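This part of the workshop introduces the protein records we will be handling. A learned vocabulary of local backbone shapes supplies the integers on the structure line. Getting from the letters to the tokens is the skill we practise here. As an example, a complete record with its sequence and its structure tokens follows.
=====
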Amino acid sequence: MCLNMDLMLYYLVDQDMMGIIMVPIFLYIYTLIFNMELVSLLINKNKLINKFSNLFLLQFKFYSINNKSDNLSYYLAGLIEGDGHFNTPKVLKSSKGKTTKAGIEIIFALKDRPSAELLKKIFGGNVFLNSKKNIVRWMIQDIKSIVKIINLINGKLRTPKIYGLFKMIDFLKMKGIEIEKLSLDNSPLNNNAWLAGLIDADGHFSIKGFTSNIRTYIAIQFYLAQRKTDISGKTLEDIMLKIANFLFVKLKSRTFDKKYDQFIINTSNKKSNEVLINYLNTYPLLSSKYLDFKDWEKASEIYTHKLHRDPIEYQKIRLLKSNMNKNRTIFSWTHHKQIVYGLYSI
């Protein structure tokens, strides 16, 4: 028997997850053949199956653990595309000879300052409070942190904001830092945490109705809006249509404040909400919106099974609604520890 070991290993690894899983199996079979152990193992079929099962589980565990940093990278890419901005100077020095600085800026609601501080701790930068506007700004301006973040999100963006990233890469090139420009990510949305990042930036969980008047219109809705065109002039229709299809809803549009054209995604049916719930329980939110989602999920469970027809269950949804979004006054951040040390390790 003549096998090209290097070629076979290269092929297996190049097949992504399945290839990674197959590598130890291939190596083990290869060893068995050349050590003449295959015959004895085949006699004991259960022993062979157990060996392969253990190898599979070991490799799957390895893949999952090492994929956690990618989860956070995808989440960060989505967050930046929602509420972030690439601030890139056109020149290396100002007219006065002062060295210019590039910066990545992400805006958070004031109540989400702990989330900004968490990301600062992981990626660097500084968090600035603006109490007048009820926001905090996470700013990354040191070159080391900027390069780190660019390398993490490069190839994971899905919107025209990629042109802002490319401008920053060009600026870094003038400083002698070479980074390859990777294209837009077109992988399925349920493959990674990108959409979770975008939802943390711009998504909204809503409970309609459930007032003291039981005749009012009721619905459990999720809402996501994005402007139709980026500052680059490129449309966001492709990605918004992809999100709408993922959630089994129609993509709508509206003009906000008589001057801003937006694409709108709105879920309210059982199938759409179930898809979103399954996704966000796989790739959780990091901001206080996580708390709104979990309350929204509870309300959805009651409503989907028509339990709200019971006055007691109806009141439960009313209570959940009364403490969500702008009405929330008590915040818990225990999900940071659970998520970051679980799914979003880096």
